[in-house]
Write a structure and sequence with these properties.
It contains 3 helices and 4 strands, in the order H-E-E-H-H-E-E. It has a 4-stranded antiparallel β-sheet with strand order 1-2-4-3. Helix 1 packs antiparallel against helix 3.
């Protein structure tokens, strides 16, 4: 729940009026995994930042995007929680077009 809240809040912050956020969930019985994706049409994340966004205290600074005074802990905490549940978290993003965060959770 906390991971989902963190990712959706980030998506809300990175989008503006007219942008979209799409949340999809799917259960893959053959793999025993639930996959959730949170996609936004916001500003996106530069390639060089994508490698570091799950590190503690890393904050993305988009010069033309909104200014955010967060601690840089939300995604790091989310990664720790996902790993604690034997899951994974990742991102695909194109700067200027938006981001998709995905969560993979094992299901028995």
């Amino acid at each position: 729940e906390q991971v989902f809240i963190n990712i959706v809040n980030n998506a809300l912050f990175q989008t503006k009026s007219g942008d979209m956020i799409t949340i999809l969930g799917r259960y893959y019985a053959f793999a025993g995994v639930c996959a959730i994706s949170i996609e936004d049409t916001g500003i996106g994340i530069r390639k060089e930042d994508q490698k570091q966004i799950f590190e503690r205290f890393h904050r993305v600074h988009n010069g033309d995007g909104p200014s955010y005074e967060g601690t840089g802990l939300g995604l790091s905490i989310s990664k720790t929680i996902m790993e604690g549940h034997r899951g994974r978290i990742g991102v695909r993003s194109v700067y200027g077009r938006g981001s998709t965060f995905y969560l993979l959770l094992p299901v028995k």
